[in-house]
């Protein structure tokens, strides 16, 4: 299958390949991503709106609980109010006596005056001697049959109901309803505390979306749109049964528009029932901005894709046309026309191929005329190589002849009593032998320092009292392997440059110490020193890529070998104070596998 696909692709023209690749790789993925981004923005907008609404519902829930706590506390007080107990259970002989009792009792009016949450307080009693004064109300048949009254008589817990009565003095408010038993009189009554509608609606006035509070019968007891107060959920066009819906989030059509509905419940303390908080927002309004932005983005993306498609088509057409012209030139060359010339302009790959084609034709012509000359040149080259090889062999010097000559000079000086000259010749021979024996392998600190000591003795012979040196190495470091000739160039540099422009004795110190897991090598002198500008040039040279200065090649060679062998942190470090001296140091890792 894959081979067949490749074969089909190879059979397509280049412009068709470019167009198909553009559609598959650019256009379709961009459109898919655009649709995904649109959906993402829409979902984000909905999630943000739902999250905001849930937070608002929680705020309303908290504020409502705080508001209902006032009538709850009042009902708890009135449950044990002796004056209330006496006034509702006494049998009055006359209207004058009843009126005096009513006038003497001020608690209901006082609570209404002190608490703005309370719109009014009523007490429903079965005492037949009472007269309805809008505070103390005898129970009639309509009241006995009402839902809220029957629920209140079932328990002493608090009930929260919207009172939809149609009597002479209707309530039409959310009210606290609670049975108050009088055990000693074997009677009971129902206390009703009406909630201030303005206070209740005020909790919802600032909400961004339509928010309702309903009781267990589905009556709207408070709403942002106050015209909805008193209506039932069935009268409102939600499209679902919110009366029996558990708290949570759901989608439904509200007044013919797709909407999200957030439902929560509040259960005030000591209550027999709960209130529902319902917040509704239309999906269209929430995603309107996201849809607008997405639509503009999709139009922009579509415009860009169309323009890009047009450009791809034009480029593919021009490219194919130039390739066809080059193909015709190749066909002519294949037929033997060596005078063909390609005139395709441009600096792109096709233009380069055209120029390379012309170079190729020119080279073929030149090669055909130079075959004989090339053969003669090859013969001459072979002869020249043989002559060079013979000269190189003749220029080689046998090292043993040099060592034997130095030994003869040393013995002659020793026989004549020139012990110092004999010793210097011995050290020179030893130094040269060590240099030849090291090759490109590794050596030890001990062997390296033997060469350094020989070199220092020879220089001591040369400079006399002007040179003094000291070598110190920790015993545990002596057998550690190091790259060869890595300390001697530093010592040579210290002697050569330390004695310049410095009168008197110059002291060269070589110190090698093991500190934790690192070997510290330091070569210092108290010679002429280096100026800061010169020191910067030296550091730039030894760390640079090219050899520009013969006098620093040794140090540069050491620095590069250290960094190549151990890494960048292990290169040379140079410190110098002009007129006081110079210190060159480096560190090596003290690994166990580096010991003999």
Question: Describe it for me?
Answer:
This is Two-component system sensor histidine kinase YesM. It is a multi-pass membrane protein. Its main location: membrane. Residues 364-391 form a coiled coil. Residues 317-369 form the HAMP domain. The chain has 596 residues and is α+β, with helices and mostly antiparallel strands. It has three domains: 10-337, no CATH class; 343-393; 465-589, Histidine kinase-like ATPase, C-terminal domain (Heat Shock Protein 90), CATH 3.30.565. The chain has 17 helices and 17 strands. The protein has helices at residues 2-11, 14-78, 82-89, 95-104, 107-114, 141-145, 147-153, 197-202, 283-334, 349-369, 371-395, 399-415, 419-438, 445-463, 488-498, 532-543, 553-566, and strands at residues 118-125, 136-138, 159-162, 174-182, 187-195, 210-214, 220-223, 248-254, 257-266, 275-282, 443-444, 467-473, 481-482, 506-515, 518-525, 573-577, 581-589. Strands 2-1-5-4-3 form a five-stranded mixed β-sheet, with helices on both faces. A five-stranded antiparallel β-sheet has the order 7-6-10-9-8. Strand 6 and strand 7 (220-223) form a beta hairpin. Helix 12 (399-415) packs antiparallel against helix 13. The longest helix has 65 residues, at 14-78. It is elongated, with a radius of gyration of 54 Å. The two termini are 62 Å apart. Residues 384-402 have low confidence and may be disordered.
């Amino acid at each position: 299958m894959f081979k067949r696909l490749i074969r089909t692709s190879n059979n397509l023209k280049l412009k068709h390949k470019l167009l198909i690749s553009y559609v598959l790789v650019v256009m379709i993925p961009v459109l898919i991503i655009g649709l995904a981004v649109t959906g993402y923005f829409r979902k984000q907008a909905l999630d943000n709106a739902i999250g905001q609404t849930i937070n608002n519902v929680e705020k309303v829930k908290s504020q409502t609980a705080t508001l209902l706590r006032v009538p709850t506390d009042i009902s708890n007080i009135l449950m044990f109010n002796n004056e209330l107990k006496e006034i509702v259970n006494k049998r009055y002989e006359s209207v004058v006596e009843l009126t005096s009792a009513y006038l003497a009792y001020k608690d209901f009016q006082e609570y209404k005056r002190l608490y703005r949450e309370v719109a009014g307080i009523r007490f429903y009693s079965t005492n037949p001697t009472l007269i309805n004064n809008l505070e103390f109300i005898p129970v009639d048949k309509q009241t006995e049959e009402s839902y809220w009254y029957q629920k209140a008589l079932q328990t002493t817990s608090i009930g929260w109901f919207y009172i939809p009565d149609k009597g002479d003095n209707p309530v039409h408010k959310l009210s606290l309803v609670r049975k108050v038993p009088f055990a000693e009189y074997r009677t009971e009554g129902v206390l009703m505390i009406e909630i201030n509608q303005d206070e209740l609606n005020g909790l919802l006035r600032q909400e961004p979306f339509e928010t309702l509070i309903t009781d267990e019968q589905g009556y709207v007891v408070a709403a942002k749109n106050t015209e909805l107060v008193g209506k039932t959920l069935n009268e409102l066009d939600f499209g679902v049964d919110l009366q029996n819906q558990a708290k949570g989030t759901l989608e439904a059509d509200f007044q013919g528009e797709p909407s999200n509905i957030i439902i929560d419940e509040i259960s005030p303390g000591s209550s027999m029932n709960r209130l529902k908080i319902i917040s509704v927002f239309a999906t269209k309004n929430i995603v309107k901005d996201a849809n607008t932005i997405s639509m503009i983005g999709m139009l922009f993306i579509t415009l860009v894709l169309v323009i890009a498609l047009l450009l791809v088509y034009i480029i593919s057409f021009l490219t194919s046309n130039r390739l066809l012209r080059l193909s015709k030139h190749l066909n002519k060359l294949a037929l033997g026309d060596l005078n063909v010339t390609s005139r395709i302009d441009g600096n792109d790959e096709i233009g380069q191929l055209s120029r390379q084609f012309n170079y190729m034709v020119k080279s073929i012509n030149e090669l055909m005329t130079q075959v004989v000359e090339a053969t003669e040149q090859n013969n001459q080259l072979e002869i020249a190589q043989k002559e060079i090889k013979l000269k190189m062999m003749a220029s080689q010097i046998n090292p043993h002849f040099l060592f034997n000559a130095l030994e003869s000079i040393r013995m002659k000086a020793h026989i004549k009593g020139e012990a110092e000259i004999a010793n210097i010749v011995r050290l020179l021979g030893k130094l040269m032998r060590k240099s030849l024996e090291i090759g490109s392998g590794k050596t030890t600190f001990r062997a390296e320092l033997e060469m350094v000591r020989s070199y220092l003795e020879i220089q001591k012979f040369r400079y006399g009292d002007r040179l003094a040196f000291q070598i110190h190495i920790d015993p545990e470091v002596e057998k550690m392997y190091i790259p060869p000739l890595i300390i001697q160039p530093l010592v040579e540099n210290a002697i050569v440059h330390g004695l310049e422009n410095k009168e008197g004795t110059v002291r060269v110190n070589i110190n090698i110490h093991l500190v934790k897991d690192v070997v510290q090598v330091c070569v210092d002198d108290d010679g002429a020193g280096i100026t800061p500008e010169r020191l910067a040039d030296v550091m730039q040279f030894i760390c640079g890529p090219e050899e520009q200065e013969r006098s620093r090649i040794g140090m540069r060679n050491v620095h590069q070998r250290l960094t190549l062998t151990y890494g960048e942190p292990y290169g040379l470090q140079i410190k110098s104070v002009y007129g006081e001296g110079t210190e060159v140091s480096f560190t090596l890792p003290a690994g166990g596998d580096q010991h003999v």
